[in-house]
Amino acid sequence: MAQYLIRRLAHSLVLLFIVSVVAFMIIHAAPGTPSIVNVLDMDQQERERLLERLGLKQPLHIQYSIWLQHVVRGDLGRSIVHGVPVWDLIRTRIPATLVLSGTAFLVALLVAIPLGVVAAVRRASMVDYGSTAFTTFGIAVPDFWYALTLIIVFGVKLRWLPVSGMYSISGERSIADLATHLILPALVMATIAMAEITRFTRSSMLEVLGEDYVRTARAKGLGAATILRRHALRNALFPVVTVIGLLVPRFVGGAAITETVFAWPGVGRLAVDAAFTRDYPLIMSIVVLISIAVVISNLFTDLAYYFLDPRLRDSGGV
Amino acid sequence: MRRARLVSVAVLVLLLVLLSLAPNLGVVAAPAGKDFLTVALAGDVIQHPLIQSIRDSIYVNSVMFNGLVTFDPDTLAPAADLAQSWTVTPDGKTWTFRLRRTVKWHDGAPFTAADVKFTIETMLKPEVNSSYLRPNIAGIARVRIVDDYTVVFELSEPDADLLSLLAHYIYIVPKHILEKVQDVNRATEFLNRPIGTGAFKFSERVTGDHYTVVANEQYFKGAPKIKRIVFRIIPDANTQVAQLKTGGLDFAPVGPGEVLAVQSDPNLRVQMAKQPNFWHLFMNHSRPYFKDRRVRQAFMYGLDRQTINRQTMLGLAQLAAGPVPPALAAFRNPNLKPYPYDPLKAAQLLDEAGWKVGPGGIRVKDGVPLKVAIVVAPIFAAWEEIALFAQQQWKELGIDVTVNKLETNVAVGKLYDGSYDLFMGFRDMVPSPVDLRRYYTCGAGSNTLRYCNPDVDKLLKEAQVELDAAKRRQIYLRLQEILWEDVPTVYLFYPPDFQVISRQVKGFPNAYTPVALRYLERISMGDR
How far apart are CA B4 and CA B274, in angstroms? Predict the structure, then answer.
């Protein structure tokens, strides 16, 4: 096991390096320069000199190698636009995104998996129709419109929930306060995730229920609940684990649109702003961090398979 | 089955839409008698005054810092701030400022002439990233301290408009703190805890969420009536409107679209402040077709700005006749009227200039079709609409127009490297015609039009050295006549500054946002 982990670590480092090179090339291939250089009414000469002082006139491979040298020493660099160390910017935003994404993810899983299972078991019932309608809605609806509509309905018209932000501006930052602010943005993110997970769970479950061993179990006289618990569920959940693993990077990166509309101070919004303002050090750092999250989540997914599937265990390893 | 699914989705959507159209059911907004103001900020970047260039930064710094001079909120003329009086020698090159004696920095240290000298000298250092600010004070050759409360600026050449430039761009920073910083471009500590002389001092910041300042009881113009200001970072305009309606925001500068959304709300009012700003379509004078004045005039005559104003600005903007808006009443030439919409005259001018209508309806000259592209950056929502109208109207003249929507960074980059034909933009002017120097002087650093007119240069130079206000005004009047005739750019509108203000706010200055924010010690929060 230890050997396996060490091998994975080595692979991951190589992967991260490749990702950083590709990201760097793509970022610099995009036209445009950082926003602080593109204020209307700047002086032409001053603009050129500022670009030079920011190190942006040097050849790309030199810029990359300078960045890399700093990163391996733990220095993520300084944001061109904000003027403060990149880590200062990111570290306050990561918890915000994790809270939002984590809650949304949890809610999605708690609702979607049972819903998908029930929809498959009670096929062609009201529950099944309802879940399909809901899934179609979740996948089709544009999240920007959805978020704004929720704000208008629950925030402005009904005044039941706060309109935006993570906490109220006055008063203590209590858990209760955070909870009320979480409801709408988490709902937006959860709906979309729920839709995908429900559909996947349902179709995976349907497939499993059609398998020979399930028919054998039924022929043996086992009750529906027992079949579900002992045979069907575990097998049906495999593909779902994959889908969840694929969703993690999206959630760690933060849903930029949701964070923008709800003015949630997360990493997703920071990443999009960084991209639009060509804040190269900030973009690179966020890309690297998300890559690390993806690597870790893939590792966990593979480990999950290992523990869930006895066949992998018996064959001597992943 | 398919029908059932479709129907259920439709029902869900319909439900949401109906609920959102319903009248307000909930309780009334924010509690009465609150003692703080909430202001909307679209972005999260805060720079300190030595390197500020981004609008949101400048807004926040306006409440924490002062300049030597500021602008009077009613007349927009230069007014006393940290300097209480000043004199200038007849040759316009030596300015003496007498400073207030009782001003303290937020940390209690006394403000003196040394702070002024430090601020100016640091900004002038080429390695400091005050790229946006520096050209305006480049004429200051030397700063001399006479005593703790008297400072002298010696200019390399006379500048009659120095005060406007100082008032608009320069906020004074504390020497005793920043001189200890190794690199002012990286003054992280000062950014995390700024110290100024202003009406409010820094209290708290949560990046991406809000920036809070509290009242400076020792403010030299009198203690503020409110306890604090919270700048809430809300990037989306629709969310800002939602917060205005629920009392989560008290003040936000908005666009015409948002005005429509709030105008019937009894808790809010819309103030349309005059601003020294005008919108125009930059013309690139390196393009051969724009070198001919008749072509430029044709572009003006061929634009139905009344319709565009009605359709994109709710009819609330004023048609522009030149680069001096009504907000600068002291300098404006009242005799110049905006070009009328005269497509026949436009066609005639283009014919005279040699651009004849060819096959396919597009004008051609020497085998080259008249083909232009308008670059549009998403700085204001109305810009794209305006560009589309211009495209339609000019197409009728036989001009092949494409609208090129680009990200702001890319678009502005094209303005500077000259790879554009037309650019939808604005001049965010200092409240004084001094900016004309940087934009219209041949070869000047901000002359992205690449416009060259020796008569204009001559008048601008004369205005620069003319200290007599009445004579300077005459020069500017003459200048506007030339620019009216010469059409260096397609003048569009003087848009008002649309400000949405909660009715709980009393005493909000009737001035455009950058100046209004300098006087927030005057406001109080009451009942509606």
Answer: 56
DSSP strand pairing (B210-215 vs B69-71): unpaired
Tell me the helix, strand and coil percentages in chain B, rounded to 5.
Answer: 35, 25, 40
The model's pTM:
0.90
Mean pLDDT of chain B: 92
Q: State how beta strands B69-71 and B78-80 pair.
A: antiparallel
Q: How far is B334 from chain A (nearest CA, A)?
A: 26
Per-residue DSSP letter, B512: -
CB–CB contact B232 A134 (8 Å): no
Of B25, B185, B232, the CB nearest to A169: B232
d(Cα B82, Cα A84) in Å, to the nearest integer?
29
Q: Residue A174 corresponds to which tokens in the numbers above? A: 């209590």
Q: Which residues in chain B have Cβ-Cβ distances shorter than 8 Å to A35?
A: 54, 408-409
Radius of gyration of chain A (CA): 24
With CA atoms as reference, the chain B residue closest to A125 would be B1
Tokens of B138: 């480049």
> How many CB atoms are located within 10 Å of the residue A45 CB?
11
Residue of B137, B109, B110, B112 lying closest to B124 (CA atoms): B137
Q: Which residues contact B226 (CB under 8 A, 6 or more apart)?
A: B35, B36, B37, B215, B520, B523, B524, B525
Which chain B positions have a beta carbon within 8 Å of A148's beta carbon? 238-239, 242
Which residue, B82, B61, B225, is CA-closest to B151? B82
Tokens 């980059």 sit on residue: B413
Q: Would the CB atoms of A44 and B1 count as touching at under 8 Å?
A: no
- Give CA–CA dist B216/B223, Å, rounded: 6
Tell me what pLDDT residue A303 has.
Answer: 83
CB atoms < 10 A from the CB of B302, how many?
26
- Min Cα distance B429 → chain A (Å) is 9
- Residue A193 burial (CB count, 10 A): 24
Nearest CA in chain B to A268: B208
What are the angstrom distances between the C-alpha of A152 and each of A179, A260, B41, B79, B332? 19, 16, 20, 44, 44
Question: CA end-to-end span of chain A, whole Å?
Answer: 9
Backbone angles phi, psi at B372, to 5 degrees: -130, 155
Q: Is the pLDDT of residue B25 over 50?
A: no
Collect all residues of chain A within an 8 Å Cβ-Cβ radius of residue B24.
Answer: 156-157, 159
Tokens at residue A185, please? Answer: 């943005």
Q: Are B521 and B277 in contact (CB under 8 A)?
A: no
A93 close to B (CB below 8 A): yes
ipTM for the whole complex: 0.88
Residue of A27, A37, A46, A166 to mutate when probing chain B, most B C-beta within 10 A? A46
pLDDT (tens digit, 9 = 90+) per residue, A88-105? 999 989 899 989 998 998
DSSP letters for B49-78? TTT--SHHHHHHHHHH---SEEE-TTT--E
What is the number of alpha carbons within 13 Å of residue B112 lying toward its C-beta? 11
B158-177 pLDDT, tens per residue?
Answer: 999 999 999 999 999 999 99
Cα separations in angstroms, B480 against A56, B117, B427, B452, B488: 40, 36, 16, 15, 11
